[in-house]
Design goal:
Blueprint: E1 2-4, E2 7-15, E3 22-30, H1 51-55, E4 58-60, E5 67-69, E6 74-75, H2 91-104, H3 109-125, H4 131-146, H5 154-167, H6 171-179, H7 189-200, H8 211-218, H9 220-232
Antiparallel strand pairs: 1-2, 2-3, 2-6, 4-5
Bound molecules: zinc ion (ZN).
Zinc ion (ZN) binds at residues 16, 18-19, 21, 61, 63-64, 66.
Length: 233
């Protein structure tokens, strides 16, 4: 068991959905809940304390290399010490294997974009270059947004695409995508306006969200309680 700033990672026996082999892979067993003080960046991801924590979100089968979100694997009661371990792969590289598995299985462009984004965040958490990951995430998300059959929250993903463009230094594209974010995205107007200002001023750096916005987006219940209390006063 490994404890990294309240995140606990433990080897677990998993069954591969592709070849049914059993293997041991690190999985996250406890994760602190998000509060207003949790580090969250403007592309709406929680900054994790170590690349190994994010890498534990995906698992890689040693028998057939099938790599996907750990939730796709069935846990098994066998002791993890008694089954083969997952291959030793550098944390961000696990996401590259997952993208490959997604391509081999005709996964939707949005799935590939989300894996690439996690690869990007994982690379940064590992102190490695992340630019190629950002390019890949942008290319796949562009495809997803152009798919007329896809029924996801387009406004939300136009916002994410705006952030990918902004962080890639493509400010014109960022402003266009931020402009396509409507109320159905469920995102606070303030967030979109803030990031538009960064794009207009040519700022490509990742941006940490202020605690108020983290609370509004990730802890709406705490926010509601607070407003009820202030209404009563
Ligand atoms: Zn397998």
């Amino acid at each position: 068991m490994q404890v990294i700033e309240e995140f606990t990672i433990k080897p677990t026996t998993l069954v591969c959905p592709a070849c049914q082999s059993m293997f041991a892979s690190p999985t996250i067993v406890t994760m602190p809940t998000i509060s207003r003080d949790t580090p969250v960046e403007a592309d709406l991801h929680r900054v994790l304390p170590d690349a190994a924590v994010r890498a534990a979100l995906v698992a890689m089968c040693p028998a057939c290399n099938y790599t996907w979100w750990v939730t796709a694997y069935r846990p098994h009661l066998f002791k993890p010490q008694l089954v083969p371990p997952t291959p030793l792969v550098d944390s961000p590289k696990k996401f590259a294997h997952a993208v490959l598995t997604g391509r081999q299985n005709q996964a939707h462009a949005l799935d590939l974009a989300l894996l690439a984004l996690n690869g990007c965040w994982c690379a940064r958490e590992a102190g490695q270059p992340h630019e190629r990951w950002l390019d890949l995430a942008g290319a796949e998300l562009e495809k997803a947004l152009k798919d007329p059959e896809w029924k996801g929250n387009r406004g939300y993903y136009h916002y994410i695409m705006g952030e990918i463009c902004r962080q890639s230094g493509y400010f014109k594209g960022a402003i266009e995508h931020f402009g396509a974010v409507g109320p159905s995205s469920m995102l606070p107007r303030e967030l979109v306006e803030r990031q538009k200002v960064h794009a207009v001023s040519g700022d490509a750096k990742p941006v940490r969200l202020p605690p108020d916005l983290v609370e509004t987006i990730f802890c709406p219940q705490a926010r509601r309680r607070e407003s009820l209390v202030s209404e009563e006063q």
